[in-house]
Amino acid sequence: MSAKSANTATPAEVKTAVEGFRLWPGAFDAAAQADLVAEVFARLDQAPLYRPTTPGGRPFSVRMSNFGPLGWVSDHGGYRYQATHPETKRPWPQIPQVLLDLWAATVGWPAPPDACLVNLYREGAKMGLHQDRDEADLGAPVLSVSLGDTAMFRIGAAEGGRTTTLKLESGDVCALTGPARLARHGIDRVLEGSSRLIPDGGRLNLTLRCAGA
Ligand SMILES: O=C(O)CCC(=O)C(=O)O
Ligand SMILES: [Fe+2]
Q1: Where along the chain is Fe cation bound (predicted)?
Q2: Spans of the chain below 70 pLDDT
Q3: CATH, residue 50
């Protein structure tokens, strides 16, 4: 299915080496990317980016916030979803409509997402290989939008074994579905300065999930 709602000239889904890992390169055109970045930063005024820590107490290199009824957080209490920002204690802002439309146009899951994690990568930030498994229903897909600097994304099967690396560029959309829902994945590095989309530079990643029951 095309991601027409993302304001594009019918982006095509491309085949990848990992079954269930779906990729729509250039799903957002330049104008749609700029609109989305503006919408995201306006919402971040209400829910500022912050640097979470791992349950063991190490700060993430990525700065984070969330939109939607539930937001992913991490601290000494573990990984979980909660309805409020850990620092401001306020509810997260709403998920932008364009992202809800994108979800409906791509992954075809009957329920809308209730969580949108916002990741900002700057100054060498990266994300180690991991699985997304803090959601109540691990059958629901995970959909992610890349904006700004290009990322080197690594992905491999849930069980382990060899991994594949591919570039995620600004405007690309990808999804972990079906057999790839629990795929191990991470961001090895971000190619600093490869895009001028984000004010003050960097890479923004928006990840939509069905987190609650
Ligand atoms: O930044 C990305 O593209 C991946 C982010 C991710 O895997 C996560 O937040 O769980
Ligand atoms: Fe992830």
Answers
A1: 130, 132, 185
A2: 1-11
A3: 2.60.120.590
Complex ipTM: 0.99
As a whole number of Å, the CA-based R_g of the chain is 16
* Among 51, 119, 163, 170, residue to substitute to test ligand 1 (most atoms within 8 Å of Cβ): 119
Question: Residue 56 sits in which domain range?
Answer: 4-209
CB 24 within 8 Å of CB 146: no
DSSP class per residue in 16-80: -SSTTEEEETT-S-HHHHHHHHHHHHHHHTTS--B--B-TTSPBPSSEEEEESSBEEEEETTEEE
> 3-class DSSP state for residue 100?
helix
How many separate domains does the chain show?
1
pLDDT digits (tens, 9 = 90+) for 37-58: 999 999 999 999 999 999 999 9
- Report yes or no: 49 and 122 within 8 Å, Cβ to Cβ: no
Tell me the per-residue pLDDT of 149-161, one tens digit each, with 9 for 90 and over: 999 999 999 998 8
CB 140 within 8 A of CB 109: yes
pTM of structure = 0.94
- Ligand 1 atom closest to the Cα of residue 174 is 3
Residues 53, 108 contacting (CB under 8 angstroms):
no
- Neighbour tally for 126: CB within 10 Å: 15
CA dihedral 36, 210, 92, 152 (to 10 degrees): -50
